[in-house]
Amino acid sequence: MREALTRTPPRRPASRPRPDRPQLIKAATITVLLLFTLFGLPQLLSLYYIDTMTQVAVYSMVTLALGVLVGRVGLVSLGQVAVLAIGAWVAARLLFATTQPYPVILLEAGLITMVAGIVTGLPALRLRGLYLALITLMLAGAITVVLATVNFPNGGHGFLGYNGSLVHIPPIRRPSVAGTDPAYFRYAVIVAILMFALTTAHLKTKPGRAWAAIRQSEPAALAAGINTTLYKLWALALASFITGVAGGVLAGAVHYLYSIGFPTQDSITLLAVTLMGGAYSMWGAVVAALLYQFLPALLNNWGVSADWLIILFGLGVLQVLTTAPAGLADQVPRDLKRLARRLRRQRTTT
Amino acid sequence: MPPWSDFEPFIVSGLALGGVYALSGVGLVVLYRATGVLYLAFGAVGAIGALIAWSLINKAHVPGWAAWLVCIAAAAAITLGYGLIFGPALAKRDPLVKAVATIGLTLVLYGLMDLLWTTSGGEARSLTLPSDNGGFSIGQIQVNWTQVIALAAGVVITLGTGLFLRYTKLGTAMRAMANDREITATLGVPVRKVEAAAWLGCGVLAGIAGLLLADLVALDATTLTFLVISSLAAVLIARLRSITITFAAAIVVGLLHDLLTPITSLTNYRDMTPFVLAAAGLLVMSRTTVMTQSREEA
Fold first, then answer.
1. Number of domains in chain A
2. What 3-state DSSP class applies to A109?
């Protein structure tokens, strides 16, 4: 019976697809992994690594957003760190100025960053491909210069909230439920899960299909009646929102923000790890964040220079672009599967 | 507004900077037209050349001229090597993919430079050319020979490249490849050889630019690697096409950047000049877009 079913799959009603076994296994794996990350990991790790993993959670949102742009819609952004900086700036300013609860601040930071992303992105979206990538690099460069002059809020007054002569700089506050580092780590992971869920919801519905069409061919998508400008702008808005929220989480994680922490070259590294991790899948975003934040921390602990990592990222980009366009998240499982198949075949022949 | 005399020295330095941007921009445009690759590692290649020259002069006590030649040769060799390995492998891909691949090379070189010429020790490096010492003055303004060489190099390279593309066989082949690689190959042009020549030329220019910028700006891996963004602005304003517009835009970028220095309210924002000019230029010029199915960006 089962054989017959797998050979000719019956057409299920599209409205209620029944999850089959591989999907159930996948869902169970994800649940177990998430529960372990939330409850097991903080018990096992030292404070150093908990801080690192908080950064991983933050940057997984950034690479997720970049993955949506690069992998799903085909818009390459070389300025994502500048967007993150805007989110962090807005969140820090609001955290100093108001006593609103943290989730509200995160939402506001996301929304304001989203508006900033749309305002700068709307004219830029006239451009395509290489030109769009380069203009994001230019805009990011400009934002970085402004940030270096304006500085991050440090508890001062006025619109900019920066006071250069302040002796005692108050730390950026954290949510009352997540004051300690392990608690804040859990908080960051939950925010990241929400952002991943938001992205999944987009990809499974109309915008996701429109983005897939645009990525394949923009003229064809246009001919099929898709409002390409609207959906490209939508992708940009979603990516800016997620990155803005990530900036808000980052502000609480580090307590003090400096404009030196957001150099333009980091946007380039970020694109490199996103491509290496795999821009087409959600796992790719997590892999990319681990590469970007966890690996440097590990090497630092071992006393290995982080420069080796930059070299590795460079080689990784070249490797990904020439041989594995879907990145590590796709390549490693595929190669493992191939290896397993080969081993199995060997066992049957012997 | 400060008095005019405050601006005068910055005209000279701005023109010198603009000259180097122009020479870099011309290299980038020619390589892009011939191979379809926007070479984002241009700055990094020049930087590693300049750092090698610094090591040769200060550690191995090699005479200056030999070190400068090694700088240019190293930049050319790295560029040509990359072009020979990754050029054919990525030839059929989108221009965007080709450009991102050169970011890979940039990261490799950048990591290598930070590893070999580490900055954490607080060791300040500088590369001075003998032309810094001599010079002349126009009215109140002091001009040194390096600044003259920088501007002259920009002018000469732009003119020379224009003539080369117009009148030589190799230049004609490059222009043909800019139009259509496949048809050019069908006509019997040795496509790979022409591409290799373009890579080599671009590498030589990267070496010269690295040497000049190390003297005019600073000998620092990060600064030199990302200074290419300023020439990119000029190249973008020229829409990766015209070397004349590239030259003009590069001079404007260099000049405007330096002229903003004495204005106190804007001096902190002067590094934005290339970005703002490029963004404005691109947006104004892209008011009408043509959507095509070809790989060529409209």
1. 1
2. helix
What is the spatial distance between Cα A207 and Cα B22, in angstroms, rounded to a whole number? 43
DSSP A36: I
Query: Quick one: pLDDT band at residue A7, thresholds 50, 70, 90?
Result: very low
**Residue A317 contacts residue B104 (beta carbons within 8 Å):** yes
A170: left (phi over 0), alpha (psi -120 to 50) or beta: beta
Contact residues, chain A, for B104 at CB < 8 Å: 272, 313-318, 321
Assigned domain for A253 exists: yes
Q: Best interface-test mutation with A: which of B114, B269, B282 has the largest number of A CBs within 10 A? A: B282
Query: Chain A within 8 Å of B91 (Cβ-Cβ)?
Result: no
How high is the ipTM of this complex? 0.83
CB-CB neighbors (< 8 A) of B25 in chain A = none
- Is residue B207 assigned to a domain? yes
**Chain B from 11 to 30: CB within 8 A of any A CB:** none
Q: Is B135 strand, coil or helix?
A: strand
Domain CATH number, residue B154 = 1.10.3470
* Dihedral over Cα of A264, A266, A272, A275: its sign: negative
B254: left (phi over 0), alpha (psi -120 to 50) or beta: alpha
Return the ∠ at Cα A319 (arms to A313 and A322), rounded to 5°. Answer: 140
> pLDDT by residue (tens digit) across B53-72?
988 988 888 888 889 899 99
Report pTM.
0.85
**Residue B172 token pair:** 């004609």
Give the span between the Cα atoms of B63 and B74, in whole angstroms. 17
Residue B125's nearest CA partner among B62, B212, B214 is: B214
Q: Is residue B122 part of a domain?
A: no
Q: Residue B152: what residue type? A: A
CB distance A317–B107 less than 8 Å?
A: yes
Distance CA A176, CA A174 (A): 6
CB-based contact A261:A80 (threshold 8 Å): no
CA dist., res. B234 & res. B216, Å (int): 19
What b-and-e string marks burial along A315-334, b requiring 16 or more CB atoms within 10 Å of the CB?
Answer: bbbbbbbbebbbbbbbbeee
Structural domain total, chain B: 1
The CA distance from B271 to the nearest CA of chain A, in Å, is 7
Tell whether A70 is covered by a domain.
yes
* Domain limits for position A255: 50-158+173-263
Is the minimum CB–CB distance between B87 and chain A shorter than 8 Å? no
Question: Which position has the higher pLDDT, A315 or A26?
Answer: A315
pLDDT at B25: 92
How far apart CA B237 and CA B249 sit, in angstroms, is 7
